[in-house]
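Task card 7
Instruction: Convert sequence to structure tokens.
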Amino acid sequence: MTEQPFANQVALVTGASRGIGAATALALGAAGAHVILTARTAGGLEEVEEAIFAAGGSATIAPMDLAENDSVARLGTAIAERWSALDMLVLNAAALGTLSAVPAFDFKEFAKVLTLNVTAQAAMLAAFDPLLKNAAAARVIGITSSVGRTPRAYWGMYGASKAAFENLLLSYGEEVRHISGIRTAIVDPGATRTKMRARAFPGEDPQSVKAPEVVAARIAALMTSGFEHGHFERVV
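Output:
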């Protein structure tokens, strides 16, 4: 590795065991950040951690379900015991839910989707707010979907959760913009080769859409450039 723009910086990536989260963790690690990886799948996290180490980087894994009780608070406490600041936070973990008409929702499933996609994200911001404020110029990027801004038939469950998530993150950004160096941004990855997309579009040729590494490279570039407060972009 020749360029280390994130040397001596700490990044936390959720949903980091595969797809966009894993690719983003690898990109940030390659740029010198120590990357904390969290997801439910320990095996996937270990593979990403090994890949980061193999590329000369460093990482720490924290397998957990962010939607479970006090898991986020425990994660925040554990990280604060080891690091004094958090420079980068990528909120990528999310659940798709079942694609269905609104009147046909399984409301128990809807509650679970909202718990992970919204409530757990609020818990993440609450848990890591002190560490983000301790960083000189913390950056928080949330991964969204086009259906959060453009309603689509049968996508109401996921779309509603993403609309709420965007509002939540940007509201947090408004709260801290004048009292800290924290900046928030929303990234819509667009059509990307992920397990979630394969579930939503089972007949699609995976090779017809871009690889997660394309999105990860854009996220790493945003982290490097220092985006404007409330930045939004769709990766094409």
